Design the sequence.
């Protein structure tokens, strides 16, 4: 069998959707999967099951692959440095991934670039926190995601759990924000950078619930500023592939950077059905240093709603109900078993009327998650 | 590993593109591949390599799959009958596939339905052919495709090669046609039928070269007639999955049925990028008896151009050139090595202006096939 053109570390839904794009582009993928039947292992024949924290396993996976990319940001940087020293191109590279892995490093670097950030400081004691002030958001500098490793604290007493974790913590001001936005860009090693339309991301319990593309009623100047900011961060940090910059639009109309992700991102899933080139295709094109594809939207409005594990246990059976109810909504299932709150799929609707698009996407997601439409 | 929901016999590009749709729908596929590295085997982990004319091999593949569908129409009908007797749903079934496998049976059945066909007769000798009249098209009743097993004859002498083949032959009038059209429908076992817009198909050397969706300047009444005809044939023949009805639009403005195909068809590839639901997704939805998806076009015009093996041998290297030249054309490569005239991929362009869309699609295809744009 010919050598793969690309190795992907991690077998979650992001790698699964990369494979969908790879089929069209004719890109052969080798996958490192955490277990034999994880989401992407179901659809990538050339896969190895193993542990991404083990350097020998990583070496086996990337053996004859010139380029390596990632389903997540958790591969130890020293392993990536070793792979690079052995001639494999890690995209994004460990020097960039650092800023997605460590929130304190990210804040320091972004502030050095002049990128607008919430006021922040590393804190190692209650005294530090009192000195920082309340209310504050405490975050573990590493390993947090989807609301995990994040605490909103209004007094030193609120912070006991966070300090008890024994992990390095970053305190940030509790931002008074109007809404959350996300600016996605693709960047190739040659330096080509292309931004997607800025989207609005709505969270529930710290997890992305729905995304509206483009962000409704966004001041065009603020949209341009968000795109330029994401392009600049991608370039300055030498990110390759997709960079997602999660942003606050503050109550007084400014942008503040919330988080960075260096891989296809939940706030870009709408692009599979809603953009000329999906974030997954552009991630592949970027990491393989191919010219990037147009990021223009294909419809005035696209809305993506996540399917989180809910009352419906048999997604396959319920799929038929949703397909019957909404013949022009696109369903994406990740091949995962249902657990409460687990991301098991998403739906995307698009069209000329935002209220209609929102209603169709939400109705489909509710039907698929809970078996009812809530209306 | 959980059981597959669907077995696909045949590992060509049609099965490969079905897998792309299956990933989104969360449908697990098992594949019977002709060889270890054929187009679809590259992207379907759960595959068996074997011979589709061997019943035991077929039994192994479909073992725990409730439904079986096909990349091609060549599985022996007696095997399909055996599988059905053993409880597997073959979709389409052998009773329908017969009319895609045997052109004489197809003509007899279509004429019984009153579907418009070219004048035709089975011929077994030069005398029969002379009695039928000239010019005529001779076709082997079975096994012909892409111009193979087809002869245009203007005298008995022209027919020597055809008769020498020793195979049953059908003679048809040489139709004076304005152009070729195709009407695609999806039909589920429950009887739901949905038609795609009627397209124009342009051939070169008997092989589909490009497809324009919808067919330009097609009389709306003729378009409605073509759709209704395809829907009626699908229903009367009890086709499940995609049925493609290839049609002549005659010089005097009538429709005549040319060929039937009972699987996703080259004239429907535009729908991946150009329709709300691709023919591949609707084929899966149909054979699994799921509700069908909307067949509406997403752009005023879509043009698909086939990539046939040409001067470019290294498609992967040339891919970068095309992606750079045309950032909003969609490339589909099938993972096949280049041989002269072999279908190795296709490109699709779409947009509001037909001349522009045609130009972009043709330029991309020429670049990918021959390395030059011909303009």
Sequence:
């Amino acid at each position: 069998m010919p050598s793969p053109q690309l190795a992907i570390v991690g077998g979650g839904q992001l790698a699964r959707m990369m494979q969908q794009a790879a089929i069209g582009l004719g890109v052969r993928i080798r996958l490192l999967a955490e277990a034999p039947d994880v989401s992407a292992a179901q659809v990538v024949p050339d896969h190895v099951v193993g542990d991404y924290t083990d350097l020998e396993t990583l070496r086996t996976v990337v053996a004859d692959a010139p380029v390596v990319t990632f389903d997540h940001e958790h591969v130890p940087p020293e392993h990536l440095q070793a792979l690079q020293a052995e001639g494999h191109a890690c995209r994004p590279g460990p020097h960039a991934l650092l800023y997605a892995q460590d929130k304190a490093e990210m804040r320091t670097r972004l502030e050095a670039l002049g990128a607008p950030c919430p006021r922040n400081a590393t804190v190692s004691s209650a005294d530090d926190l009192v000195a920082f002030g309340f209310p504050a958001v405490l975050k573990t500098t590493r390993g947090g995601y989807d609301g995990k490793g994040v605490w909103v604290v209004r007094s030193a007493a609120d912070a006991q759990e966070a300090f008890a974790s024994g992990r390095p913590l970053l305190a940030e001001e509790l931002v008074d924000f109007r809404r959350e936005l996300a600016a996605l860009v693709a960047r190739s090693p040659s330096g080509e950078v292309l931004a997607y339309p800025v989207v609005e991301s709505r969270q529930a319990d710290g997890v992305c619930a729905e995304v509206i593309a483009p962000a409704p009623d966004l001041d065009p100047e603020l949209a341009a500023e968000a795109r330029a900011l994401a392009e600049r961060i991608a370039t300055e940090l030498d990110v390759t592939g997709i960079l997602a910059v999660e942003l606050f639009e503050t109550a007084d109309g400014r942008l503040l950077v919330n988080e960075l992700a260096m891989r296809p991102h939940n706030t870009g899933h709408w692009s599979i059905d809603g953009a000329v080139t999906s974030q997954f295709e552009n991630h592949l094109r970027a990491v393989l240093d191919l010219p990037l594809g147009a990021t223009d939207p294909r419809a005035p409005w696209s809305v993506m709603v996540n399917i989180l594990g809910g009352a419906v246990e048999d997604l396959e059976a319920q799929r038929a109900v949703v397909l019957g109810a909404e013949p022009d909504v696109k369903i994406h299932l990740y091949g995962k078993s249902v657990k409460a709150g687990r991301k098991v799929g998403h739906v995307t609707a698009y069209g000329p009327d935002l209220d209609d698009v929102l209603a169709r996407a939400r109705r489909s997601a509710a039907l698929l998650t809970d078996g009812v439409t809530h209306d």
User: Anything to note?
Assistant: The radius of gyration of chain A is 20 Å. Chain A touches chain B through 47 residues (CB under 8 Å). The first strand of chain A starts at residue 6 and ends at 9.
